[in-house]
TrEMBL record:
Pfam families: Hydrolase_like, NTP_transferase. One of its GO terms (biological process) is carbohydrate metabolic process. CDD domains: HAD_HisB-N. The keyword Acetylation does not apply. Keywords: Carbohydrate metabolism, Cytoplasm, Hydrolase, Metal-binding. This is D,D-heptose 1,7-bisphosphate phosphatase. GO terms for cellular component: cytoplasm. It comes from Rhodopila globiformis. Gene3D superfamilies: HAD superfamily/HAD-like (3.40.50.1000), Spore Coat Polysaccharide Biosynthesis Protein SpsA, Chain A (3.90.550.10). It is found in: Cytoplasm.
Length: 411
């Protein structure tokens, strides 16, 4: 196995302490990120997106109305598709965005994501993760950037290759420009550049740019900041519609990797041609990507569940390093003729049973009519049909060539 940088970042800090003054009465008792958006708080949608890219721990940086955030956490956590931890860090005084991070400094990981709690940028986050994994050691942070045809409402950045060299005032009306998308990946070294009361945008980022310590990745896609009433109004219908995504279910052995039989470790995992490109293509197109895999090797005593989970995590991380993501995965360790007693049973999750697919449909609130399953066995097709999902039998060859027309034909 070759040594490679790890793309996945498991911690995300979220700025939720803003005053929300432009929304008037709406935010008198409710922090902006908790305003309802369809059937859940805006923050619930935001965190769900980060879960798709491997975040398992959220640190909510609170200030104004911290108690309301604390009261909402359990419901938000219960509504998320994965098992995540959500904790709060409350600023002791109005500290600004940089100060909020400063006061949480003892709880930050070596690398962490940071985002605004009142805006959503539907861009492929794996592009940011992949770029950051290859950053030189002296880089402190990387920002997900947006290119606008008219950037006159915002300050803009100067980008040289992928280095952010300066922040500038708003350009004149009609001038195109590159702006901060409000999503960051930082190294813990950021803390050395913070003070108890400071603004990330006005103080810290410009200083980092002057010191050549800041880089950017250009993203694209839907962006909405719910800070003003008209935009919040639009977000309430746009976001639930947008984030009920189409879904690509992938079998593992024989689709993502050459089926060498009971592959239980990365050193025996050989990618199918075009597999990483196929994952990236689906991610870029705004689809969920899931793995559903029978792993009777566990029931046969060839490897254990930790090995299966470890290999799935490695697959997801390798996908992110290649600019795509695996949103989630299900595996079935059972087999009716297994040699390990605990796993010797028929199980509804074992394909051709549809159990794994149905569980993902439930967890991610999917519409089966907007999902497809790619497998290399008839049992995959049976599982798909019984879950109400269109099945496509992969005959081998290049996976991107096979998947691209399927993904692209869905409007
Ligand atoms: Mg297979």
């Amino acid at each position: 196995m070759t040594c490679q940088p790890t793309a996945t970042v498991s911690q995300c800090a979220v700025l939720v302490g803003g005053l929300g003054t432009r929304l008037g009465a709406l935010t008198a008792a409710t922090p902006k990120p908790l305003l309802p958006c369809g059937d859940r708080p805006f923050l619930g949608w935001l965190l769900r997106e980060f879960v798709r890219y491997g975040v398992t721990e959220f640190l909510l940086l609170t200030g104004h109305l911290s108690g309301a955030v604390e009261n909402a956490v359990a419901a938000i956590q219960a509504g998320l598709p994965g098992d995540v931890r959500i904790t709060l860090s409350q600023e002791p005084v109005r500290a600004g965005t940089g100060g909020a991070v400063f006061h949480a400094r003892h709880r930050l990981h070596d690398r962490f994501l940071l985002c605004n709690g009142d805006s959503l940028f539907d861009s492929n986050l794996a592009a940011l993760l992949a770029d950051a994994a290859r950053d030189p050691a002296d880089t402190v942070g990387r920002i997900l950037l947006r290119r606008l045809d008219d950037a006159s409402r915002y300050g803009v950045v100067t980008l040289e290759q992928d280095r952010i060299s300066a922040f500038q005032e708003r350009p004149p009306a009609g001038t195109p420009g590159i702006i901060n998308g409000g999503v960051y990946l930082f190294r813990r070294a950021l803390v050395d550049h913070l003070s108890p009361q400071c603004s990330l945008e006005a103080d810290v980022l410009p200083a980092l740019a002057r010191g050549n310590r800041l880089r950017g990745t250009l993203g694209s896609g839907y962006f909405r900041d719910i800070g003003i009433p008209e935009d919040y109004q639009r977000a309430q219908t746009e976001i639930p519609t947008l984030l009920h995504r189409r879904a690509l279910f992938l079998d593992r052995d024989g689709v993502l990797n050459i089926d060498h039989g009971y592959v239980g470790s990365a050193d025996r995992f050989e990618w199918v041609d075009g597999a990483l490109d196929a994952i990236r293509h689906a991610t870029e197109a705004g689809w969920h990507v899931f793995i559903v895999t029978n792993q009777s090797g566990v029931a046969r005593g060839l490897y254990d569940e930790d090995a299966v989970r470890g290999l799935l995590a490695w697959i997801a991380d390798t996908a992110r390093l290649a600019g795509g993501t695996i949103d989630d995965a299900r595996y079935c360790p059972f087999h009716p003729e297994g040699s390990v007693t605990a796993y010797r049973q028929a199980h509804p999750w074992r394909k051709p049973g549809p159990g794994m697919l149905l569980d993902l449909i439930r967890a991610w609130e999917l519409n089966p009519a907007r999902a497809v399953m790619i497998g290399d066995q008839e049992s995959d097709m049976r599982a798909a049909a019984d879950a109400g999902i269109a099945g496509y039998l992969f005959p081998g060859g290049n996976l991107l060539s096979f998947i691209q027309p399927i993904v692209d034909k869905y409007p």
